[in-house]
Design a protein that fits this description.
- The complex is a heterodimer of chains A (323) and B (335).
- Chain A has 12 helices and 14 strands.
- Chain A has 323 residues and is α/β, with parallel strands linked by helices.
- Chain A folds into 2 domains: 182 residues, Thiamin diphosphate (ThDP)-binding fold, Pyr/PP domains (Rossmann fold, 3-Layer(aba) Sandwich), CATH 3.40.50.970; 125 residues, Rossmann fold (3-Layer(aba) Sandwich), CATH 3.40.50.
- A 7-stranded mixed β-sheet of chain A has the order 3-2-4-5-7-6-12, sandwiched between helices. Chain A has a 5-stranded mixed β-sheet with strand order 9-11-10-13-14, sandwiched between helices.
- In chain A, strand 6, helix 7 and strand 7 form a beta-alpha-beta unit.
- Chain B has 335 residues and is of the alpha/beta class.
- Chain B has a single domain, classed as 3-Layer(aba) Sandwich (Rossmann fold).
- In chain B, the strands form 2 sheets. A 6-stranded parallel β-sheet of chain B has the order 1-7-8-4-3-2, sandwiched between helices. A two-stranded antiparallel ribbon of chain B has the order 5-6.
- In chain B, helix 8 links the parallel strand 7 and strand 8.
- In chain B, helix 1 packs across helix 11 and helix 4 packs across helix 11.
- Classes of the chains: A alpha/beta (323), B alpha/beta (335).
- At the A-B interface, helix 3, helix 4 and helix 5 of A face helix 5 and helix 6 of B.
């Protein structure tokens, strides 16, 4: 174990996988010379050269399209999107090319490709640099979607994503990059599709992920001080998602809260809640509650952005209503 | 070759110097494409083939001339009008026809159909249902070839309509900056779906856009297989030497509708007939080789017989193949 930041954990994953497999390379804007806008690629070009750590033009369509083509031709690209919001620029490459090449060509060739997408609210970056868009991709068969909340998972999920034969969207919350945590050294893999029970509890289940998981844990602390034992599940994979762990927990607790930073309407929480309604309605002792952002583009001004955020208080207040 | 430089050229090699084997392969490939497409059209109209069909009839010289310069380790990215490219790249006709029929034995197991046909075993990395969807994939396969230290190249085919997608510009810039071995093959067939070329495109010669990306280009009569072959040969040689991307503009004409069933209200019958009568690539080829006495009538007939047999066999294979079992719906989604 060593105590490193989320950003360093992703770097370690990149280094280990690039050492392990010479087909792995990474490209994106400002990653080689600058080291990535969050420092998450710093030092990588010195170890692997500019041929494998490649600065691209500001051409997201090319970055993703060429990654798909390179994967079809035997490479294992990791593409950095700079900001998750910019995936909108290259959506065709993501959902018509990357997601479908394996299926529509009759499984002739896999598309081992990781799209790294820094997402979430940070420093009042406003409407086009702050979004959480993981739910979009959960709606697309052929893609996998992972979204770690801590340095250990950041490393383990990135390594697993790079080794996966399928295209994986890797969402990394910008506010998590500087956070530290214990990370296993060496070959630490986290299975895609497996949730992590952050803490056990018997009174209600909170399902969350990414930065919001930290707020969910804080809300659970506050509930604990009041004698309420919340089970907190870090979903960490959005597609495929760990239905079994969630259903098992709900069967035990009888209450469910899902919390995420993305807007509530159409958020991935809706899928979880709908699944519980379909498969475990009789386990519920109270209505389910979803916590997500209000249905608005993300504002710039501080008080507006603050009001937009899903905080531990928002989660606590929502849960209080179902206890 | 100086760059950037866009030149017009016609074939210079006397036909007699081509050698019988190459000439026979030109004829066989072009005729196979023609007869394959005619067969597909007939069986689509008869209701035997589902989906959308876009025919390559009249443009056979381009796929044939370009692909004669490529080997199995070279990659191509194709379009919705992709049967010709796939055949010329060497795909198995039986499995192609079965795919177009939506059969289990198809090269994509009946999951792709005409617009998503692919045969990775011959370096055909896929047709694309999205116009202009292939450029960046081809840039990626070219990048892979370069990173893997290979001398192989990638080629992307596209029409004049697709040349107006932003994807072209990003891929062209990337290929140029990174000196990727990527051949842009523009099939200028006059119509973007139903829209006449000049009403939607800023330049008379699309290859002029290659100037902006500092790559050399050649404009040829796309209905003359000799010119396409020689021009593509020069550009492929340039790319194999590590000089970066190149642009080949082939002036052709789409004698069929955008899709089978297109009412074609945007042009006159006379315009189409004139192109069929005066510019047919296969008739033009026959005339030239017979005049030059490079091939004989008997040579051509022997090829025609062989092609008919292959087409018949492909059709029979497709018709007799089973459809995929519904259990295959949920297979091949994730590896």
């Amino acid at each position: 174990m060593k105590n490193i930041t989320f950003s360093q954990a992703t770097l370690e994953a990149m280094e280990e996988e690039m050492l392990r497999d010479e087909r792995v390379f990474v490209m994106g804007e400002d990653i080689a010379r600058q080291g990535g806008i969050f420092g998450q690629f710093r030092g990588l070009p010195d170890k692997f050269g500019r041929e494998r750590v490649i600065d691209t033009p500001i051409s997201e369509t090319s970055i993703v399209g060429a990654s798909v083509g390179a994967a079809l031709a035997g490479m294992r690209p990791v593409a950095d999107m700079h900001f998750a919001d910019f995936i909108g620029v290259c959506m065709d490459e993501v959902f018509n090319q990357m997601a479908k090449a394996y299926y529509m060509f009759g499984a002739q060739k896999t598309v081992p490709l990781v799209l790294r997408a820094p997402d979430g609210l940070i420093n009042q970056a406003a409407a086009q640099h702050s979004q959480s868009i993981e739910a979009w991709f959960a709606h697309i068969p052929g893609l996998k979607v992972v979204i770690p909340s801590n340095p250990a998972d950041a490393k383990g999920l990135l390594k697993s994503a790079i080794r996966d034969e399928n295209p994986v969207l890797y969402f990394e919350h910008k506010a998590l990059f500087p956070l530290t945590g214990d990370v296993p050294e060496g070959d630490h893999l986290v299975e895609i599709g497996k949730a992590r029970v952050e803490r056990e509890g018997s009174d209600l289940t909170i399902v969350s992920w990414s930065l919001t998981l930290l707020n969910a844990a804080k809300a659970a602390d506050r509930l604990a001080s009041e004698g309420i034992k919340a089970e907190v599940i870090d979903l960490r994979s959005i597609s495929p998602w760990d239905k079994e762990t969630v259903l098992k927990s709900v069967a035990k607790t009888g209450r469910l809260c899902v919390a995420h930073e993305a807007v509530k309407q159409g958020g991935f929480g809706a899928e979880i809640v709908a699944t519980v309604a379909e498969e475990a309605l009789d386990c519920l002792d109270a209505p389910v509650v979803r916590v997500g952002a209000p249905f608005t583009p993300i504002p710039f001004a501080r008080p507006l952005e603050q009001a937009y955020r899903v905080t531990s208080d928002t989660i606590y207040d929502a849960i209080r209503k179902i206890l | 070759m100086e760059q950037p430089n866009i030149i017009r050229m016609s074939a210079r090699t006397p036909i007699n110097e081509y050698g019988g084997e190459l000439l026979r392969s030109f004829y066989e490939t072009m005729l196979t494409i023609r007869r394959f497409e005619q067969t597909v059209e007939e069986h689509f109209l008869a209701g035997h083939i589902p989906g959308f069909i876009h025919l390559y009839i009249g443009e056979e010289a381009i796929a044939t001339g370009v692909m004669a310069n490529l080997g199995p380790a070279d990659y191509i990215e194709s379009t919705h009008r992709g049967h010709g490219h796939t055949i010329a790249k060497g795909a198995d006709l039986n499995r192609m026809m079965a795919e177009i029929y939506g059969k289990k034995t198809g090269c994509c197991r009946g999951k792709g159909g005409s617009m998503h046909i692919a045969d990775f075993s011959v370096g055909m990395l896929g047709a694309n249902g999205v116009v202009g969807g292939g450029y960046n994939l081809a840039a990626g396969s070219a990048l892979a070839q370069k990173m893997q230290g290979r001398k192989d190249v990638s080629a992307v085919f596209f029409g004049d309509g697709a040349s107006n997608r932003g994807t072209f510009h990003e891929a062209a810039n990337l290929a140029s900056v990174w000196k990727l071995p990527l051949l842009f093959v523009c099939e200028m067939n006059e119509y973007a779906s139903t829209t006449p070329y000049l009403t939607a495109t800023s330049v008379a010669d699309i290859s002029r856009r290659a100037y902006g990306y500092d790559m050399p280009g050649i404009i040829v009569d796309g209905n003359d297989v000799f010119s396409v072959y020689e021009a593509a040969g020069k550009l492929v040689e340039y790319m194999r030497a590590g000089n970066g991307p190149a642009f080949l503009e082939c002036k052709t004409y789409r004698v069929k509708g955008h899709f089978v069933g297109d009412p074609e209200k945007y042009r006159t019958r006379e315009e189409v007939q004139k192109n069929i009568d005066e510019r047919d690539p296969i008739e033009g080829f026959k005339k030239k080789v017979l005049e030059a006495k490079a091939l004989t009538d008997e040579d051509l007939k022997a090829i025609e017989k062989k092609v008919e047999e292959r087409i018949k066999a492909a059709l029979r294979f497709a018709e007799e193949s089973p459809e995929p079992d519904v259990s295959e719906l949920m297979t091949g989604i994730y590896a």
